[in-house]
């Protein structure tokens, strides 16, 4: 693990730290307006046009390649799958995820309301709002409270109890990346509780019904309706839809895992959140989160989760503001002697891979670094 140069803060410093970060949020919210509305509507339009283009390319590749111009079959289908995958990434990351945080509720647009938006993924938005918006954002990286720590499948931190099962977690991690949307869909079903006898089959079924219904609609759309539109040339369209979903799954897995599981990210015990002040909450979010460099391109295609620190500080602020806010956030962190965890995608994801490989084997917890100064 990298050496982290952060110091514990006194209660007074924590209060000031929280007040400065709260003030930045208030100033930013006060300037929300037409530019933010225009931005998210452009993103929504981009999702639609990329999705349409991808599906047209898939259809053209399948039909033309199967009849008049066989040479166009795979080039057009591959291009179509990539473009459709980009549409799904943009919809899940920059549109759906941020809308569901309520970032654009103030616009009054029924299509952009956080409590009713339904996204293009097999998991339900209601489950995501519970497991992500509430549990993960409230208890970020707190063991036993944040289910995103390893998603119940992986041992990411040495503080997690080791079991022989974790020896195969490098292979499990690869499968999980490919099928990531299904992991998100099943996260709140608590299947492990049912296996251990802590949940009845009827309760599991009740929880599963909305997921089964949503997954059925997604599979019908991607794997039945659109492929059948190509008639006898349905197979390339079907494969293109599968590839598009896998592209989206691997990318979102990579970005999300870089957000909280890099070498410098920390995990916390439950006692850490007892009587937690606002400043203490900010500090825990900071030390449990990781940013990615890469400029506007990375910001857009990661849904601004490249600014994971700012997102965890301000989940209800329009995400297109994070880049500007990050300048002041970083300056505040520096003044209070706090490490601001950021790096390139290859560097950050490399440390995530290291964690997955290293903690597949028994390992001892790292020394606990206090958030608050003694006394």
UniProtKB/TrEMBL annotation:
Keywords: Membrane, Transmembrane, Transmembrane helix
Biological process, per Gene Ontology: lipid metabolic process
Keyword Membrane (UniProt): yes
GO MF entries: oxidoreductase activity, acting on paired donors, with oxidation of a pair of donors resulting in the reduction of molecular oxygen to two molecules of water
TM stretches of this protein: 56-86, 165-185, 223-247
Keyword Membrane listed: yes
Pfam families: FA_desaturase (PF00487)
CDD domains (UniProt xref): Delta6-FADS-like (cd03506)
InterPro entries found in the cross-reference section: FA_desaturase_dom, Fatty_acid_desaturase
The protein's name: Acyl-CoA desaturase
Residue stretches making up the Fatty acid desaturase domain: 74-342
Domain of life where this protein originates: Bacteria
One GO CC annotation: membrane
């Amino acid at each position: 693990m990298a050496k982290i140069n952060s110091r514990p803060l006194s209660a007074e410093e924590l209060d000031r730290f929280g007040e400065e970060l709260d003030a930045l949020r208030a100033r930013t919210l006060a300037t929300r307006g037409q530019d933010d509305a225009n931005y998210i509507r452009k993103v929504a339009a981009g999702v639609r046009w990329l999705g349409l283009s991808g599906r047209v390319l898939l259809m053209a590749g399948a039909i033309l390649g199967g009849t008049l111009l066989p040479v166009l079959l795979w080039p057009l289908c591959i291009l179509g799958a990539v473009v459709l995958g980009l549409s799904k990434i943009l919809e899940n990351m920059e549109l759906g995820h941020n809308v569901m945080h309520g970032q654009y509720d103030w616009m009054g647009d029924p299509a952009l309301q956080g409590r009713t938006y339904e996204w293009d993924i097999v998991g339900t938005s209601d489950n995501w709002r519970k497991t992500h918006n509430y549990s993960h954002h409230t208890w970020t990286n707190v063991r036993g409270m944040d289910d995103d720590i390893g998603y119940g499948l992986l041992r990411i931190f040495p503080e997690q109890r080791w079991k022989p099962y974790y020896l195969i977690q490098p292979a499990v991690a690869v499968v999980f990346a490919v099928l990531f949307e299904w992991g998100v869909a099943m996260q709140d079903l608590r299947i492990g509780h049912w296996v251990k006898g802590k949940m009845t089959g009827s309760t599991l079924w009740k929880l599963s019904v909305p997921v089964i219904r949503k997954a059925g609609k997604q599979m019908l759309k991607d794997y039945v309706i659109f492929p059948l539109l190509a008639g006898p040339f349905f197979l390339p369209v079907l494969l293109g839809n599968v590839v598009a979903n896998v592209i989206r799954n691997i990318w979102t897995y990579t970005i999300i895992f870089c957000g909280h599981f890099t070498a410098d990210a920390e995990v916390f015990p439950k006692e850490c959140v007892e009587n937690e002040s606002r400043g203490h909450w900010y500090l825990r979010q900071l030390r449990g989160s990781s940013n990615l460099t890469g400029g506007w391109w990375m910001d857009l295609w990661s849904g601004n989760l490249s600014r994971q620190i700012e997102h965890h500080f301000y989940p209800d602020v329009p995400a297109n503001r994070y880049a500007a806010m990050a300048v002041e956030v970083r300056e505040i962190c520096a003044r209070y002697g706090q490490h601001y965890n950021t790096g390139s995608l290859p560097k950050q994801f490399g440390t995530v891979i290291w964690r997955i490989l290293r903690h597949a084997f028994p390992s001892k917890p790292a020394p606990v670094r206090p958030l608050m100064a003694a006394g």
